[in-house]
């Protein structure tokens, strides 16, 4: 009855108060006491390994059904019980990581809102699992000292982990939860699936959505392509379609360019395909922010170094005087855009860009290609703020030339009658 009352408070108190945290702490102390006093003894008188799974299962259900808190902008939960459980227990103790998944009873959750329930589940599961770590420094502690051997069974854990995640992925998710899942999928979820290929449908459907969802799904897709031989038809055609004017204004622009760099690195790709991507990026750069262009220029330079057959885009000696750009910007198939017959004239335009950093960087294409490839990490995360900060902290060799006459105001007194400036 005492444990029931503790769980009732954890599950039903809707406002933030220390009482909920105290109840959680007391309940988990009971878990520890039960692991010692409810364990059977061997013939030698020693306690057998034991974990109170039934008691812990009831706690997991109450945490996920807890009515406290709300769903945050990233799809996680502000629930104080969840936050306390994650920070004080789940992140520290490997046995809780194992038994949280093992004792999660999805049948108990069918009658509650999936958005609310999953927000709590996601808050917990976005943390890094330290189970089965081989590095001694990364091996976590255990809350219960004498654990059953099943805690070390990777096959069992991965099978259970997969089942529980697929349960939630097959239910309705809001858009923010969708994004957060895709952000953590390749590091927090795929490595713990017994059969990662079961995520193929989820990822391919995500890739077809378009926009930011497609961009975020690339990490997971890449893992399946690289490690599990996923065959995705028309992959590069879909990747090419993601290059639109919105791309270089998105929050995840740098993440996308890192992956695109990997996808286009193979020397076995047709030069016509590479040329289409480079031409598309060059065309988009004409209307992009300086912070985006600063990443496009070194990206293009590196690609031309990797694919020298595309150098014709910069130096075509056979072009006639009446040359017109044959590039078809509306063509969806990158092999049919005629980009390889075009040129990167847009990059020459950038050499007269209003921002001096962009103009200076673009001039690299007018020089011999003797420079080593750029380190893209130096350019991917630039923003307007970082560009301004670099200008503010830059040391001037000489004093800046200013107007020799001094003025008390921006505009003269007689500029507009009746107005003072």
Automatic annotation (TrEMBL):
GO CC, alphabetical: cytosol; Noc4p-Nop14p complex; small-subunit processome
Domain CCAAT-binding factor: 214-362
Pfam families the record matches: CBF (PF03914)
GO biological process, one term: endonucleolytic cleavage in 5'-ETS of tricistronic rRNA transcript (SSU-rRNA, 5.8S rRNA, LSU-rRNA)
Transmembrane regions listed in the UniProt entry: none
Family note: Belongs to the CBF/MAK21 family.
PANTHER family linked: NUCLEOLAR COMPLEX PROTEIN 4, NUCLEOLAR COMPLEX PROTEIN 4 HOMOLOG
Name this protein carries in UniProt: CCAAT-binding factor domain-containing protein
Source organism of the structure: Wickerhamomyces anomalus (strain ATCC 58044 / CBS 1984 / NCYC 433 / NRRL Y-366-8)
């Amino acid at each position: 009855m005492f444990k029931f009352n503790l769980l009732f408070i954890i599950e039903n108190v809707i406002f933030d108060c220390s009482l909920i945290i105290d109840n959680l702490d007391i309940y988990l102390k009971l878990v520890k006491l039960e692991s010692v006093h409810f364990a059977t003894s061997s013939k030698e008188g020693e306690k057998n390994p034991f974990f109170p799974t039934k008691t812990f299962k009831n706690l997991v259900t109450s945490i996920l059904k807890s009515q406290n808190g709300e769903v945050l902008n990233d799809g996680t939960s502000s629930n104080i019980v969840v936050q306390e459980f994650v920070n004080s227990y789940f992140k520290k103790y490997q046995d809780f990581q194992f038994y949280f998944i093992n004792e999660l009873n999805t049948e108990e959750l069918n009658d509650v809102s999936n958005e609310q329930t999953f927000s709590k589940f996601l808050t917990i599961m976005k943390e890094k699992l330290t189970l089965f770590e081989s590095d001694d420094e990364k091996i976590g502690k255990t809350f219960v000292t004498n654990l059953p051997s099943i805690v070390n069974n990777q096959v069992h854990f991965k099978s259970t982990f997969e089942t529980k995640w697929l349960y939630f992925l097959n239910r309705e998710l809001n858009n923010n939860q969708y994004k957060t899942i895709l952000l953590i999928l390749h590091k927090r979820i795929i490595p713990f699936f017994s059969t990662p290929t079961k995520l193929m449908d989820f990822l391919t459907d995500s890739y077809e959505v378009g926009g930011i969802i497609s961009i975020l799904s690339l990490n997971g897709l890449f893992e399946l392509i690289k490690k599990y031989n996923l065959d995705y038809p028309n992959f590069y055609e879909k990747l090419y379609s993601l290059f639109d004017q919105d791309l270089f204004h998105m929050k995840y622009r740098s993440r996308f360019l890192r992956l695109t760099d990997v996808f286009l690195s193979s020397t076995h790709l047709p030069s016509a395909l590479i040329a289409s991507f480079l031409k598309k990026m060059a065309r988009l750069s004409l209307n992009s922010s300086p912070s985006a262009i600063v990443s496009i220029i070194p990206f293009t330079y590196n690609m031309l170094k990797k694919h020298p057959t595309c150098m014709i885009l910069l130096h075509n000696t056979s072009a006639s005087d009446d040359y017109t750009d044959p590039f078809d910007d509306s063509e969806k198939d990158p092999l049919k855009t005629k980009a390889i017959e075009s040129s990167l004239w847009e990059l020459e335009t950038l050499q007269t860009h209003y921002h001096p950093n962009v103009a200076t960087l673009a001039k690299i294409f007018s020089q011999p290609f003797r420079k080593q490839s750029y380190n893209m990490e130096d350019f991917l995360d630039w923003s307007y703020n970082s560009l301004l900060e670099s200008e503010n902290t830059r040391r001037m060799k000489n004093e800046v030339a200013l107007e020799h006459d001094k003025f008390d105001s921006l505009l003269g007194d007689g500029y507009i009658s009746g107005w003072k400036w």
